[in-house]
Amino acid sequence: MACHFLARGCEHRHPNPNAVSHLGLWRASLARGRHRLGDPIFKQKWRETPRRADWTHRAAGMSNASPPAKMPESPHRSLISPQEPADKIFLEGPRSRFAEFFTLLRVMRDFLRGFRTLHFVGPCVTVFGSARVKPDDSHYELARKMGAAIARLGFTVMTGGGPGIMEAANRGAKEVGGRSVGCNIELPFEQVSNAYLDRCVRLHYFFVRKALLIKYSYAFVVMPGGAGTLDELFEALTLIQTGKIQNFPIVIMGTDYWKELIGFIEKMAERGKIGPDDLSLIFATDSVEEAIAHIRTKAIESFRLKRVARVRRHFPWLGERGFSGKGPAIC
Fold first, then answer.
1. Whole-angstrom Cα distance, residue 214 to residue 222?
2. Would the pTM count as exceeding 0.90?
3. How far apart are CA 161 and CA 184, in angstroms?
């Protein structure tokens, strides 16, 4: 089992305990948009305006209502779960105070489950990438080699816990005796955790998952992926750029895939939309050796991480789970 790093002190990890940015969503209808929040007319209209669910039921109960237009059949309809995803319920707009309170408890439960599961995994490097990449893809093999190299460096490899690039990175770590963990997510279609995880937590909310993928990591490796990978890349980049977390290295791999995006980021700097120094926050390469050297310099040396042979003691009565390294974990 590879040795792992611990920082000299907790203050070197995140200077701000509220390290992850959150988007506050307030949806006001167009009819109310011209009123200020403190306007009595606004408050009256808000109370009198039915919720979205009420609109549906009332429309269905009107005898003279024309039947709604039939929506086109989705090619992915067979993959959709009949149960509404937690994120959809959370973001659907204002609900009753009672419902909002229980949503808050569910979010807290997700965070608590993640904290208790991942507290003892050690400093991580998170690998982002597509779940659709097959084992015969060259990017799968690149992620596998990168996962092995990260584990040899002494870090725990963290991913989203699913198939594709995530599986490849976890697999590479396990093959060299390193630690491998995942933060999986409940989706309308089933995302099964891969078989190369020592520890896995399954979450309901995307924003909780993103927070945990960033919270425990000293570096981020971005492999080819889709909209979710872009979201994770720019979440980490924005937090570093705005000083919410420290200047952890971001390594982009698969330059043939990302060349247009890298060019667009350079264009943003040329047009003054980001600072010239922001370009140094990302490091693009296809070489595992160059990526590891960059992580060693920007993470291990910059934050003075040291190898330790013993991890901290855990307390089962607090719901904490020690890291035995015996897997695989299924979630």
1. 13
2. no
3. 5
Length of the chain: 331
User: Going by DSSP bridges, is the β-strand pair 156-159/124-128 parallel, antiparallel, or unpaired?
Assistant: parallel
DSSP calls for 25-37:
P----TTTTTS-T
Residue 232 makes CB contacts below 8 A (sequence gap 6+) with 128, 210, 213, 220, 222
Residue 129 pLDDT > 80 = yes
* Tokens describing residue 223: 């492999």
3-class DSSP assignment, residue 308: strand
Kindly report the backbone phi and psi dihedral angles of residue 284, in degrees, each rounded to the nearest multiple of 5, phi listed first: -105, 130
Task: Catalogue all structural domains in the chain, each as residue range(s) with its CATH number.
Answer: 111-305 (3.40.50.450)
pLDDT at 57 > cutoff 70: no
Amino acid making up residue 175:
E
For the stretch 69-102, pLDDT in tens is: 444 443 433 333 445 678 888 898 999 999 999 9
